[in-house]
Amino acid sequence: MRPEAQQRPARPVMLDVARRAGVSLKTVSRVINEEPNVRPAVRNRVRAAIRALGYRPNSAARTLAARSSHVIGVVALGSALYGPASQMFGVERAAWQAGYSVVVSSLGETTTEELVRAVGELVDHGVDGIVIAAPVHVAPVAADELLQGIPAVSLDRFPDEMGLPAVLSDQRTGSRDATEHLLRLGHETVWHVAGPFSWHPTQERMTGWREALESAGIPVPEPVEGDWSAGTGYAIGRELAARPEVTAVFAANDHTAMGLMRAFFDAGRRIPDDVSIVGFDDVPEAEHLLIPLSTVRQDFEAATRRAVGELLSMLRADGRPAVPDLTFVPVELKIRASSGPPGGIRTQAPMTMADQE
């Protein structure tokens, strides 16, 4: 054995914590596992000893002793899209604040098969509960079969017969508000560039848009399917820019809206004089564009904090709620410079950036 190995201090164990705090091993275990029946002064003394010694509980031993891993599993979308990425960060932060670690299983595709695989990995990992933070287009599958008895909550809506509790942004109301805003400005109708039609958020946003038009007695244009990207938004925008009757567009997300804005600019259409554009999400850069983007703000932090809170309540109740609920988190329309009254179509050559300013 090398001399430096002999001199290396031994890793502190639970007995060291108990001796330093002047309590029993059972009391240390209760504090570590957040069990009741420990006086606040004693709990604080044990925690101080843990910090002073740099003691780190053994995860495997802790799981066996407490029948709890203190780990939350997250089914995430293997994508850098703003919404799913914000959900992932929010879940991780909320779990950490509650004293839980997070393990992630990412989806390769938004299918039933991939969901079953991802959940199976988390179950095998021994997680206490699962947050599904990915949009998945699934056929109905029994929740008990999918989750194998593990409590779970979703940030996307699943078929009602699955009985899976969900915390959702109120996307339908937000989309309706965005469309009504454009109609109040005087636009004869509002076109919609959607996300992938198979996604639940796409369907919710299309429904809100359609409801607003139908309530106003206005014909509903055919929605155009996109893929959430600025590139596709630009390609669709080039086609819409060639149609003089298009004076207002509601985009399914902000990156699509940014692509649309560039396409209309390149085609010589001023924003908002010739065409108004409203997005969805309120990404950080939306208000800092050359023409700040009107958009619907989702409160990802509130939604993920609520979802983790619901899951922890289920864990304390030793299972799922008897009647699964849908909880809706409010959204907010942020009106900025990209939306305004219709001002007519320009016919001259495309503008320079100085013209647009």
Automatic annotation (TrEMBL):
Q: Which domain of life is it from?
A: Bacteria
Q: Which Gene3D superfamilies match?
A: 3.40.50.2300, lambda repressor-like DNA-binding domains
Family matches, as Pfam families? LacI, Peripla_BP_3
For this protein, the record's PROSITE patterns field holds:
HTH_LACI_1, HTH_LACI_2
Q: What GO molecular function annotations does the UniProt record carry, in alphabetical order?
A: DNA binding
UniProt cross-references to CDD domains, sorted A to Z: HTH_LacI, PBP1_LacI
Positions of the HTH lacI-type domain: 12-66
The alphabetical list of record keywords is:
DNA-binding, Transcription, Transcription regulation
Q: What is this protein called?
A: LacI family DNA-binding transcriptional regulator
Species of origin reads Georgenia halophila
Q: Where are the transmembrane segments?
A: none
